[in-house]
Amino acid sequence: MEQRKNVLAIIGSTRANSSNLNLVKAFAKQTTPKFEVHIFEGIGNLPHFNPDQDTENPPEAIVAFRKLIAQADALLICTPEYVFSLPGSLKNAIEWCVSTTLLSQKPTGLITASASGLKAHEELQLVMRTVEARFTEATTLLIPGIKGKFDTNGNLIDEPTIKQLKAFELAFEALLD
């Protein structure tokens, strides 16, 4: 049997038990035979990006974050939209990688799940294209109205979204081949 691929999931929300976290957990559960999904939970603890600190000795939290990215076979970024844009914590995390080649050609899945999410989804694709991450239209997914797609226990129950997530999974798997 083929070894499962190591996927690092980065959640744009810092909220505990966010819809984005629940969505990634649903993805991890449905892809267990294929992927080992590790959820990065420290996005809110990363220091603010400062080019003066992005030297040979960046902050320890950044060294650890970059190591997780380097060790991953692929990235999954799942984010809400805040004020028609990316959350500052997600943009900050990406900015800490700009001076590296860590994201260059890294297979990446991009999910924006929010009330609307359209502007953040466009921005996420632009930013990830700029850092040369490797993704396709099929490995991007916009899910508007995300909160109504879960039951009170955080389980994904919306059938159209479940089908979209399955199609996304297949495209993501193909990106890693």
UniProtKB/TrEMBL annotation:
Pfam family, one: FMN_red
GO molecular function terms noted in the UniProt entry: oxidoreductase activity
Keyword presence, Transmembrane: no
Keywords: Oxidoreductase
Highest taxon, organism lineage: Bacteria
EC code(s) of this entry: 1.-.-.-
Domain (NADPH-dependent FMN reductase-like) ranges: 6-138
Record PANTHER family: CHROMATE REDUCTASE (PTHR30543), NAD(P)H-DEPENDENT FMN REDUCTASE LOT6 (PTHR30543:SF21)
Protein name: NADPH-dependent FMN reductase
Species in which this protein is naturally found: Pedobacter albus
